[in-house]
Amino acid sequence: MRITRVRELSVLLEGNIANSLVNFSEHTISLVAVATDAMRNGKPVVGYAFDSIGRYAQPGLLRERFIPRLLAAKPADLLDEGGTRFDPARISKLLMRNEKPGGHGDRAAAVGALELAFWDLNAKLADEPACRTLAHAIGRELPPTPADIRVPVYAAGGYYYGDDGIDRLQAEFRGYQDAGFTKFKMKIGGTSLPDDLKRIEAAIAVVGSGTALAVDANGRFDLQTALDYAKAIEAYDLRWYEEIGDPLDYDLNRRVAEAYTGRIATGENLFSAQDVKNLALFAGMRPSLDIFQMDPGLAYGVTEFLGMIGTLESHGFGRSHMHPHGGHLINLHIAAGLGLGGCEAYPGVFQPFGGYPDTCRLGEGYVSPTDAPGFGLEQKVELAPYLKQLDTNN
Q1: Which of 185, 325, 328, 380 is catalytic?
Q2: pTM listed for this prediction
Q3: Is there a contact between 240 and 231 (Cβ–Cβ < 8 Å)?
């Protein structure tokens, strides 16, 4: 079994929304296709994946470094010991040949997109959903029917939309409730503290209680602002207070954790197991309380993510406190397969990647993957034109 071609495509996110730091109207995502000479139903087996939402596409890195390394490898060097499946860990090591430690940045997402495509391939070769392939890789067994695989999910939204204000925020969350969500997340830090408190209170009026609502500052705050917000929101008993300051400012995170009795969430902008080890050691994270949100697509893929899980578990943190950032199908399968605490969803934003296809079962705050082979990206109608473009490009 060998690779016959690898293609990448930069896809522009749809919409013009903003958090406290970033407007996403210019953001792109790297969508990749890895084709093989293996055949199923008369067609070559192709693995699809993307790097996740919230950064930029990496066409230069993929074309100049990582795809050439992949294509130059001997076919046997990409396979497991039995020679019937691809070995993502071996492939990750090959992709990182001649790369220095540290300095993760965009290369972590480029490698992540390619590594994830091999999980999609392996699942298709086994004719099973990727969540089952992931579960088998770590010795887990999932329920036999897709409807019995239920992952806790929350709807992420509540961005800054311009002049529409609180009415739009409330209408958005009502729409998520109608779709079957019971937990929600909104943005803070993009306006004044008094105005954000009004937005939080308006959201709580819809979702019913603070315990159903998380807030996300997207790394905006300095220490004093972080503490001011912590003091102001503590009485709301929110689900969590997310990405408070710079993701590598472990001292800031620790000092907020010491002052704030509520739950803290962070990790989506950490891209290596070493970064996560430092978070566990120095950021004041509390094993019985706080949430980790590392995103495999931004962090070298599942291979590195498994290292992150091992690191956290060795320091007393359970995987039930892991909720991957990203809000898309790939991370739904990862959360289901690895037995994580839940996952994020972007039901109203970040198309063509955000949210789940109608074939996924959603209700009462849970979502179930379908039984489509692989990650099931082919079932997402918004992605269909881009997958077709990858397949037809010369």
Answers
A1: 325
A2: 0.96
A3: no
